[in-house]
Amino acid sequence: MAEQIDSRPFYRRALGKSFWLSVNALRRTRKRTAKNSRRLYVEATSTLHDTWRAVRRRLGKVYYNSFRVWGLTKKNAKRLRRRIYHRGRYTSAGRAVLAVSEVATSPRDAFQRKAAAVAYNRQHPAAQLNRDNGYAMLPPGALPGTAEIIGLAVRLFAKKKRELEAAAGPDTAMHGKKWAFMRSVLSNEDLAQHPEFVDFALSDSLLSLVTNYLGTVPHLNRIDLLYSVAHGHDDTVSSQIYHLDPEGMRQAKLFLNLREVGPDEGPFTFIPASETSRITRAIRQRRDADMAMAHYLESELAEVGGLDKAMAVMGPAGSAGLVDTSRCLHFGSRVKPGTYRLCLYIQYCASREHGNIFDATRYVADRVRYLATVNSHRSTHAPVSAPHQMN
Fold first, then answer.
1. Is 0.70 topped by the overall pTM?
2. I want to staple 82 with a disulfide (CB 3.0 to 4.6 A). Which of 9, 118, 159, 246 is the partner?
């Protein structure tokens, strides 16, 4: 076959060849660009992903450390507050400053509580809880409704006793020591299901004793059943040693025996406030160490003539003691092997503290009882275990 000869002029042949060379060059450039773009996209995405992971890790550490610092700050602030309260109690000037600070933190609430208490105390005068000595001993039958509340408490305890004895106890070292000899029975859910406990705590016969003593409507802080047992050795630990409670300047705690309590059952034992002031002052003069949050050894009390002033809440079911544990040295739960103590514990505070959650809406129409429960919603909704100040 004869070879075909391109009959186009030379310049047209050159232009055609240049055109197709340019087209092929553009195609190759586009392929290389697309390939490089994909590679750059993958590298950029990987870099951004790694950067974001590093940022998240860093932010997580900052977030965790911030909460940790905040938690430590709150914890140290509480310790400082308790230290100030303890130190302030020892002087008249300190007591005056603390009284003013309690009002200054929430003046409107303090005014409402005092005004409501004045009107309430006129209707329900009560002087059994002596302001000088800071306690009232209540024989069986002194509080109406005691028999019914004892029956409810004993039935509920019988239902929960097995769970309590099988429980491993709290994680913290302080509560772990406490758990060895005392268990907290009631939860917020139990109190919601059995409002009879709250109604008993806010009954006129009991609440009037506290309002007349404090001169203000108290914060109902805790309601619980305390189950105390022997911890297996002779040493006293935690609240089994004489101490003062850290909540505020004044408070009132009810310890109502739900069964016969004698010396072997480890009764709640206290020293009246007037004697406590003399004893702590004398011991402070003898001590070189810091007094804040300190326990008071029985050997120290014996040296200043304090042991013979002690009183114990003993007696049959229904016997009770209402004591200001911020002003009265006290201890409890020194139970002997083979027995146990069971008591109803109710705490009223002059200042707002961490405690149970109560349904204040049940008392909207009752000013005094509403004020006694309304601030409980500020407490954390986490379960409340027996704190170190229970006895």
1. yes
2. 246
